[in-house]
Write a structure and sequence with these properties.
Helix content is 31%, strand content 23%. By secondary structure, it is an alpha+beta fold. The N and C termini lie far apart (116 Å).
Length: 256
């Protein structure tokens, strides 16, 4: 039975040319049938009519034969070739695998601020996050209507600190002063204060608020001011690097 499976595989591999040849033969026989049928209408002699009828029937028979072979080839390629293993124990018809697009793993970058290492998941893919310090002179602090003037970039802070600056953009709504935590998380340490009527007050070169640095662990941080308008928009936050130092409590020194 091996020759049967070989024939089915050969037919499957050359199916395009097989169908083209069979279709051409079928069309040719139909043309000969049509021509014989036309000549038959104008032939009066009995012997000649018998020859034309025989040629016509032969062409019709061959046309039906070629059409049947095309149908058989179609059935073989559709039902037999894919199931050779089950039918004859032969290897199945090889199927060429289509290339698939495998998306690369998406790595969400994290802003790593001074002194704070970004957590690295055990199964993280892609490059290891690098430290991205705030520039020594700060960033985004050139806009005079939304800036921090004190403390200055690189300041070493301890205890309670007064943060000064300006928060007076057009359509002012409110402002917040935040300190960096891990990644891109920020912790609010100062919020704008309302007046007696509940309206948030802008600040023009004044005190934005006071912040107790003892609430954070000593180390390097980033401090930023975000000023929002009534539509929820804000200019680029003014961000400065700072260092929180441990507060040294004074001790009484006994006199001798």
């Amino acid at each position: 039975m091996a020759w049967i499976s070989d024939a089915i595989l050969w037919l499957y591999d050359h199916q395009r040319w097989v169908f083209v040849v069979l279709l051409a033969l079928c069309v040719l026989q139909l043309f000969l049938f049509w021509r014989a049928q036309t000549h038959l209408r104008y032939t009066a002699f009995s012997i000649e009519r018998e020859n034309i009828v025989a040629a016509r029937n032969r062409s019709l028979t061959l046309a039906v034969l070629w059409a049947a072979l095309m149908a058989a080839a179609l059935l073989s390629n559709t039902f037999l070739a894919p199931n050779l293993t089950d039918l004859f124990g032969a290897a199945p018809t090889p199927t060429i695998p289509l290339p698939t697009s495998t998306p690369a793993p998406t790595v969400t970058p994290e802003l790593v601020l001074p002194g704070l290492e970004s957590p690295t998941p055990e199964a993280a893919l892609g490059p290891t996050p690098s430290r991205t310090p705030v520039p020594a002179g700060g960033a985004g602090c050139l806009f005079p209507l939304a800036t921090i003037t004190s403390p200055i970039p690189g300041a070493i802070l301890a205890g309670e600190v007064e943060v000064r600056g300006a928060a007076n953009i057009e359509n002012f709504a409110f402002y917040v002063v935040e300190i960096s935590t891990l990644g891109e998380n920020w912790l609010t340490v100062i919020t704008s204060q309302p007046d007696s009527e509940g309206h948030m007050l802008p600040v023009i070169d004044g005190v934005l608020g006071k912040w107790d640095t003892r609430l954070q662990e000593p180390g390097d941080y980033a401090l930023r001011l975000v000023v929002y308008d009534a539509a929820g928009n804000h200019p680029v936050p003014c961000t400065i690097p700072i260092t929180i130092a441990p507060l040294i409590e004074p001790t009484d020194t006994p006199f001798p």
